[in-house]
Amino acid sequence: METLVVLTGAGISAESGLQTFRDSDGLWNGYNVYEVATPEGYKKNPKLVLDFYNMRRREVAKALPNEAHKAIATLQEKYHVTVITQNIDDLHERAGSKNVLHLHGEIFKMRGEKDIHTLYEIKGDIHLGDMAPDKTQFRPHVVWFNEQVPMIEKATIIMAKADVFILAGTSLQVYPAAGLIDYLPLKIPKYIIDKNPPYIPPHHGFHVIRNTATAGMDELMKILL
Ligand code: APR
Q1: Cβ atoms < 10 Å from Cβ of 124
Q2: Are residues 128 and 58 in the same domain?
Q3: Is the preceding peptide bond at 198 cis, omega within 30 degrees of 0?
Q4: Domain that holds residue 77
Q5: Count of domains forming the chain
Q6: pLDDT tens per residue, range 135-146
Q7: Could you give the residue numbers annotated as active site?
């Protein structure tokens, strides 16, 4: 079985009703990114940050996987599929994808402020005063700007083993995730699906599908299945 790797971003979940970050109606509108997505912002106003992610968690709980998430899961019938996602939602898993690596954390998990490895399930809200066993405040298991991306090394190893690659719904603005495409083998088939694709230098050899995630995946399924 060939190994197919998919790297996704917020655009894959846009048609499930979850806003992307950098489109004009993006999530940061009305919120200063430094206030809600950096350790410094959290230190300054933890309640604001907890509430921000409590809202995100409620939105994700209400959202459903779309046809693009489902198509990626269907590819498991023919390929050994690994999804590397920058998204903190669980829509790939709910669509049936078995191997999902979350680079930027998961909204339905939380942890204490110090121990980044011990994770706890969280379906509802995290309140100020909810303490981890080590007596630190619970916070979302989300990787903020200026924080380490613990999964990045594992992701580079997965990328290097790809026989086929799909990049879907990411602006490739955020590192180290954006640098992952440099780890792909040179001569494998590579596809990008995005309604407004980021520029990728031609030597990478991407086949560009300028379309929404659902329509683009539908098109790609005819090639890959
Ligand atoms: N179908 C396909 N692509 C879409 C759709 C859609 N329906 N809607 C938007 N897009 C594309 C946009 O054109 C853009 O290229 O999805 C991409 C979304 O880009 P961003 O909003 O920058 O999201 P992402 O790349 O996932 O952001 C990376 O930044 O804010 C941090 O940690 C956060 O994981 C996030 C990271």
Answers
A1: 9
A2: yes
A3: no
A4: 1-18+66-104+144-225
A5: 2
A6: 999 999 999 999
A7: 104
